[in-house]
Amino acid sequence: MEMIVMQLALFVLSLFLGVELITKVPPTLHTPLMSGTNAISGITLVGAVIAAGAGDSASGLVHALGFIAVVMATVNVIGGYLVTNRMLAMFKRKN
Amino acid sequence: MEMIVMQLALFVLSLFLGVELITKVPPTLHTPLMSGTNAISGITLVGAVIAAGAGDSASGLVHALGFIAVVMATVNVIGGYLVTNRMLAMFKRKN
Amino acid sequence: MNTNLVDLVYLFSAVFFILGIKGLTKPKTAVRGNMMSAIGMLIAVVITLLDKSIVSYEYIIAGVLVGGIVGGIMATKIQMTSMPQMIAMLNGCGGGASLGLAAASYLLTLGSDGYESGVMGVIAVSFVMITVLIGSVTLTGSLVAFAKLQELISGQSIGFAGIKFLNAALFIAAIVMLGMLCFDPTNSTLFWGLIAASCILGITIVLPIGGADMPVVIALLNSYSGIAAAAAGFIMGNTVLIVSGSLVGASGLILTQIMCVAMNRSLTNVLFGVMAEGSETIDADEIYAGKVKSAQPEEIAMILETARRVVIVPGFGMAMAQAQHAVRELCDVMEDKGIEVEFAIHPVAGRMPGHMNVLLAEAEVSYDKLVEMDRINPTFEQTDVAIVIGANDVTNPMAREDKGSPIYGMPILNVDKAQTVVVIKRSLSPGFAGLPNPLFAQDNTLMVYGDGKKAVIDITASLDLA
Amino acid sequence: MNTNLVDLVYLFSAVFFILGIKGLTKPKTAVRGNMMSAIGMLIAVVITLLDKSIVSYEYIIAGVLVGGIVGGIMATKIQMTSMPQMIAMLNGCGGGASLGLAAASYLLTLGSDGYESGVMGVIAVSFVMITVLIGSVTLTGSLVAFAKLQELISGQSIGFAGIKFLNAALFIAAIVMLGMLCFDPTNSTLFWGLIAASCILGITIVLPIGGADMPVVIALLNSYSGIAAAAAGFIMGNTVLIVSGSLVGASGLILTQIMCVAMNRSLTNVLFGVMAEGSETIDADEIYAGKVKSAQPEEIAMILETARRVVIVPGFGMAMAQAQHAVRELCDVMEDKGIEVEFAIHPVAGRMPGHMNVLLAEAEVSYDKLVEMDRINPTFEQTDVAIVIGANDVTNPMAREDKGSPIYGMPILNVDKAQTVVVIKRSLSPGFAGLPNPLFAQDNTLMVYGDGKKAVIDITASLDLA
Ligand SMILES: NC(=O)c1ccc[n+]([C@@H]2O[C@H](COP(=O)([O-])OP(=O)(O)OC[C@H]3O[C@@H](n4cnc5c(N)ncnc54)[C@H](OP(=O)(O)O)[C@@H]3O)[C@@H](O)[C@H]2O)c1
Ligand SMILES: NC(=O)c1ccc[n+]([C@@H]2O[C@H](COP(=O)([O-])OP(=O)(O)OC[C@H]3O[C@@H](n4cnc5c(N)ncnc54)[C@H](OP(=O)(O)O)[C@@H]3O)[C@@H](O)[C@H]2O)c1
Predict the structure, then answer these.
(1) Would you say C319 and C390 are in contact if contact means Cβ atoms under 8 Å apart?
(2) Among C104, C221, C275, D5, fewest CB within 10 Å belongs to which?
């Protein structure tokens, strides 16, 4: 229970920090920001990996769900970072 | 132990948040900012109160230290907020 | 491995995410920032793989391979003009992953010891169910948004009169099931019911929203996918999920708000698909009749010939026509002739925030030529020619002048103040807001009808010859 | 009371602190921000008092009464010009409180069960000792800073050649004792030794630093007092202490950095009391001889009479002379005569960041008349008269031109570009940096010798009569 209050504290602080950070991003970078934060939300990959690697005791359905979660999270992560990088590289090229 | 890692996480996040917030404060308000954050550091009052209220089992020295801590923290808190308020009220008055 | 060490490493990776987003606040540091955030991800994943709780690796490896290939191909093949779709798709994957992981964790816990009884159990289950709810809505909502943007289904509002009530009913049903599950986690029928209701809800919420409002929906769903990740973090007691999930949640919310402000509409207004009510119906014919003048590319080239300052105003049509490279060449030719050229960027031009910036950056237009609305507006009076390429609503003077207009109050680019206005579009048909644009009927406006790319290329060719 | 509830309330009060600091980012919301932060404090203290772990209230009530009265009187009686001292004093109290609380907690734990053995015990003790170390240095360091600023002791660098070695030795001794205590927490001799060494260290670190560098020291100690509070939070497992302590820690660090940048000096350079080396010794007589012109207040009034734009440049001397109200009246009289008046605010004018702003705000000068260095510098060429009141280093053109000068590279106000420069100070003696100022010997400069307040009043009177 104590842990949950601490986690709540982390959650609240991160929200504040997020707001402060994001409001500083200039409009020029809003599209890469969207895809970049999107890639970050692929952090669920960490959870998905744990679910998919749960071992033989788990039912087939758990494995299937874990597998799907890993696939989707990986698409999110790899696709998100690569496409953001592609966009940002264009911004850099000329300047 | 797990708690300490969580506390460390809170510490780190708050540092980041502090940096983001403070860099937004305009030079005009730097003096009140100094006294205002100073007042916040008087939050040790919370700890001081616990130490000073430790009950009869504690030695006289503990009570004395607790008392001194309460006095100093209260000076810090009351003095800090009042003087900041005095300064800020001056900024407001004309505008 | 020692769980404290793992937690410390997670903290480390959260710091990388924070530094990454910090990097995104400046074009110069943005690439490095994205890299740092990717490193943070790598660290988090590697330490998780090394953690003792993972027993079998085959599903993980297979999943990462499949996902990596799909994601990699999508990211390298996608056209810059299709970025909104891409983000919708990625977003759906994020939501789906949260859903999958929550469901797997639920089944795992049921399969082993089950949930604790008492407060802790209720809290644990409720986080799982919240993740399921948000994850499902994000998944299906994003897929519908994708389909609309990719024009797999009509971009128009799809639905029927009572769809709001259906949505309300679905939402209430989902909440009730969620509540019941908290006290009876073993009832897996309820669980599948919750997933089904939430998935349908995602679809029926997004279907009635018009295609052009999709970016707002996507930003909002982006925020949801972050919140879902944070909720999953509460399930697993994982700090990095909580921290980075809430960062993403905040990001999505702020982008949503920025868009709404720039369109002068409220979020509810966007979500329920209503435009502000106009007090009068506006008749396009009355505005345009006999007053619209059109011109050929050659004539425009002649006008540009003598101009000293030109402002280019790109809009959604430039993206549709993929005209960004052509525009850049026009800009080069004008600059060769000593003309001062700037681009006026409206915050919601196109179909997502920063859309025009990305396209023009792709065409290698330097970003100091891209000027924000507030800074460029005062300069239109000293501008000889404003070239509007596929922009419409963001230049509509009704937003400034006509109190009865549905877009009244939306900040616009004051293109009409320029000496001459050249508007390149295919017809007189309206833009996203569905309104006629009095700009087209102004004395100093010349319409060039045609596909954006072709028209620009023609103008460039004539100017180059001159 | 339920500890989870207490923790939740602490989180709530941390949010108030965050919103409070957020409020301080705009003059309009600053008062409210300060209020919110005070409310956060109140909430935290009240919930702590209600918490079950408090048994006896007499010491608390006595302490709060004494502290409240002392703090209240100090805050209401202090002159605005003495703000640096006040902050030094408050800061010392913050450090002292952390020290007292850490010591009390140490004795309490020893008196009951003692510290756990193993890693957890070492970590717990080390937080106590870190708090003791930082708290002591903050306490005594701030008191010395206070004494210097209040001129109870000389503002000059006090010390002897080997003081750096003494400091190094003290620091090493403190760290060694700290380390030994972690493994043998019961050795209370070591504990008192640590306190003694740290207290002396605070004194001997600050004594050699010049009085004008005190603001940097105070900002740094402010940061320390925050870190001490955060460390105390780790001792007690208290989230609100950790969060708000680290916010304060960040704030102090950033202010320190801002000052160092504005003075073009590094932090080590400030702390070890060295100015940048000048490559040549500068002879004041050579610069001033026969070139300095002085004038009477009446003559200045005549010049002002015909001016259209005047910029007032306040510095440390205005604070010393308490001339802010007089300056404001001069400004009013000039404005009545149709003269445009602005104030040029250098980031390190005076003796603390924002010092001039506070003084002028006290005299009710509207803050949109206070213009920052970067914005006002380009306007000096269109300025008829620049009136420099008790400022010196921040106007010294050597910083811009003379590569050999110790202050070369420090950004300055380009007062010398104004049509006429009027400098009000008591003599030709140098400012904080100890350097002659070629500005005083310029053709277009007139010196008005005298106390700042009196000189300004005289000028105002003559101008008013004219
Ligand atoms: N950017 C965002 O984040 C965002 C988010 C939500 C909503 N919106 C909304 O989207 C709208 C954006 O305004 P906007 O001015 O950029 O676009 P718009 O008002 O939607 O107008 C785009 C114009 O481009 C023309 N066009 C389409 N294809 C073309 C082609 N191939 N060649 C040449 N022209 C073409 C169309 O006219 P023809 O058919 O005659 O060619 C249309 O009038 C605003 O109403 C805004 O509120 C934007
Ligand atoms: N603001 C900060 O945060 C901060 C922090 C650290 C260091 N500093 C340093 O402090 C200095 C600030 O520059 P500054 O230009 O404001 O001040 P300054 O260079 O220290 O000069 C102040 C001048 O005021 C004159 N003065 C003193 N008392 C006076 C009175 N009663 N009436 C009239 N004049 C009086 C003095 O000359 P007379 O004796 O001839 O009258 C002196 O030359 C810089 O060197 C800066 O680096 C500032």
Answers:
(1) yes
(2) D5
